[in-house]
Every structure is written in structure tokens, then in C-alpha cells.
Design brief:
- With 455 residues, this protein is α/β, with parallel strands linked by helices.
- The chain has a domain of 139 residues: Rossmann fold, CATH 3.40.50.
- Helices cover 43% and strands 16% of the residues.
- The protein is built from 18 helices and 15 strands.
- The strands form four sheets. A five-stranded parallel beta sheet has the order 2-3-4-1-5, sandwiched between helices. Strands 11-12-13-15-14 form a five-stranded mixed beta sheet, with helices on both faces. A three-stranded mixed beta sheet has the order 7-9-10, with helices on one face.
- A hairpin with a 6-residue loop joins strand 9 and strand 10.
- Helix 11 packs antiparallel against helix 12 and helix 12 packs across helix 13.
- The protein is globular, with a radius of gyration of 23 Å.
- InterPro entries: AAA+_ATPase (IPR003593), AAA_14 (IPR041682), DUF4143 (IPR025420), P-loop_NTPase (IPR027417).
- It comes from Flavihumibacter stibioxidans.
- This is AAA family ATPase.
- Pfam families: AAA_14 (PF13173), DUF4143 (PF13635).
Length: 455
Amino acid sequence: MFQRNVLAELDKWRLSDKRKPLVIRGARQVGKTTLVHRFAERFEQYIYLNLELSADRKPFEQFTTVDQFLEAVFFLKNRSYRNRKNTLLFIDEIQELPEAMNMLRYLYEEAPDLPVIAAGSLLETIFNQKLHFPVGRVDYLVVRPAGFSEFLEALGEVQALEQWNKLPLADFAVERLFQLFHQYAIIGGMPAIVQQYADHRDLTSLKNLYESLIAGYLDDVEKYAGSQSHVQHIRHAIRASYAEAGKRIKFHGFGKSVYGSREMGEALRTLEKAMLLHLVYPNTSAVLPLLPDTRKSPRLQVLDTGLLNYSLGIQKEIIGTADLQDVYGGTMIEHLVGQEMLSTMYGALSGLHFWTRDKAGSSAELDWLYPWEGKLIPVEVKSGATGKLRSLHVFMEDAPHRMAVRFYAGGIQINEAKTMSGKTYFLLNLPYFLAAKLENYLPWFNDQVSGITNA
């Protein structure tokens, strides 16, 4: 079933003995509502409230006690109140009614046996200052665009998915998985687009869907922004974000605009809260804790690489290329690897990290950092000889461990590498399409390294 990975996270929440009402976060059109409808099949009863509908808002506006509220909801939806423990209550578009947000607190305190999920469009809630989340009384789950494994599932590529999940990956599966990953690289992970392609296998039929998604985000701004100048700033930020994605950016004049740092900073941070993009600030240390330096220029990561490819007009460039590193100067595959790494992160505070050293005459920058077992694992997205990984060598000079990762257009290999001073470390080379499996491969890599050093 499409969205299987997120459904597994919902099952963990359902079975937890410390369950709280769950707020599902995510940008528009990442499949939040469809996901909960599918999850509801686990329950004997399901109540769906859409607060854009006046009839579904009434119980929130008229209640005096939690019990009265729940009795009214179960009555209006023709469900048995006695069976509420086996009922999923889903409050959709919760941003439409401040009283509904407050109700989550009361449901947590007075009806903990009732499984409750809420979802909404964060773009609206940002501009509605009346809305306040009940801190400490709700759990969060972030829903992002479909990852490569979900793409395989949607296409019915059962055998490919089975091989992708094996650790380590067999050599015979590499070529076929690269072919499928190139398709995913072109299309991206927006659920409606993935489903359309799965149903029709026609790239040309996707154009209207891409246009509709982007237009929808622009229309959201028009509808909910507080002032006309704010509308203009955010609309420009959305349009320009695709051309600037994967790069380090400056707020002043962002996207070749005449806008200043304050206007563009506010617009981009608004879009980040709406989860349409991420501003990834660099770390400057090779050891924990992660401490992004917000004084330095951030790297821009947009919601979906498929939207990026369509906006830039580089989809045809991807078709037939032997190495995705050759597309758009390598920026597209670095962005996609970041998206794949992010696809396995469901926490509200999870995010991407990268490293830089800005010194005169010796600057260096790594594509990504991955915290694991008390270590910061450097991640590069590059093809070519290991000797060309200069920034990686610089990072490993200061790292208190000997593990590094590279994603490239090849199979699984472990190489020994040396820094400029002669420090030896080990480099795990993985095909691009295993980026979402990094957490699984690091323990295996650690065992392999231990075996080599103890031999």
C-alpha cells in the first residue's frame, strides 16, 4: 500500500501506552488526509470531521463539556459512543476553528482512551494568530513527499523493492534500481503525481498536475497573507525558490529581486513554517552537538525535487543520462539525496545538516552531515576518484572517528582513504538510490570497519 512507511509510524502511535492526540504536519498536497483515511481501516469505527464544513464545526462551537462534545459528534456521525476506544476521530482542516485546537487539550486530559488525529494546512495557521497548539498535550508526525521506496511500491515494483530492502544490496540489483531511480528523479515524490504516473506511465500527462500544485501554493498566499506587500514577497519567494534550490542563498536580492533582507527573510521563513522549503544553516564543527550557524548563508531545500525539475525545465536532461551528477551541475542529485534522507525523518524537529569551513585560502564544504551514535558522519554526493574529495579529507582531519559516506553512480564499496596529513579513514560508497537507507547501512559499515581494523 502506498504510504506504507508513514502508516507504520502511525501504528507505533496507535499502540503506544503514552499516546496523545496526534497533529500531522506537512505541506499542502503531501497526502495527509488520504493517509489518515487509509489508517482508519485499522479501527472498528471512524469519524471524519472537516472543519471547512459548517455542520462539522457546530459541535466545537456549542459544547460545554468534553463528554457533551463527544456525544454530539458520535450522534451526528451515527457512531456508537460506547465503542469510542475503537474509534478514530480525525479533525481535518483544524486551522479553520481556534476552538478545535483548544479541544485537543481537553481530549488529552479527559478522554485519553479516544484516538484523535488532527491535520491542517500550516500556511493558514501562520497568519492566524488566534491559533495556539496545546504544548505538551499533543504528539507530532511530519508527512513529506513520497520517498523512492514508496515510489517503487506505487509502481508495483515488488521485486525491486524487496531487493532495495536487503542489506547489503546484491550487485545484480544495482542496474535495475538505478533505472527506476532515474524515473523517480524525474518525477519526484508528490503523491498525486506519483499516482498519476503509476496509473498511466505517461510523463507528458503530468504537466497539468505540476502546474496545479505550484499554482495552488501561490493561491494560498493570495488568500491568507496579511498585506499586499507580504503577498508579493511570498509569491516571489515561491517562484524563485526552485531556481535557487540546492544552493546557498542570500536574503538580500533573493531570486534577482529588488527586495531587501528583511522582506525576503520573512517570506522564506514563512514558507519554511508552511513546510514548502527548508533553510539549512551550516555547522562548522566536526563533533557534536549540532549547532547551525545562523550568521552564515543557508542552503535552500525545497519541498520536492520533481517540482524543482519541472520548474527549471530539466526533466528531459535527466532522461538518458548515465550519471545524475551530470545534470544541472550536480545540484539536482545533491538535492534529491537530501530529500531522500529527509523522507525517513518524521519528528517535528528533525532536519538536514551540512558542514562548511570558511577560511581564507582553505574553504571547504560538505554536502550533508548525518548524526549517528554520537558521531557526525560526513556525506558527499559525488562521482569520480576518492582522491578528489578534498572537502571530505578536510573534515576527516578533525573528526574523532574514521567513517565517511559517499553517494555516487555505482555499487556498494568500502575504500580506505587518506587525508592530506596521512590520517586513514574508511569511505562507504553507496548508490544514490540508497540515501534513505543510510541509517540502516551505518551499523553494517561500522561492523565492516571493525572487521578490517581487527584483522
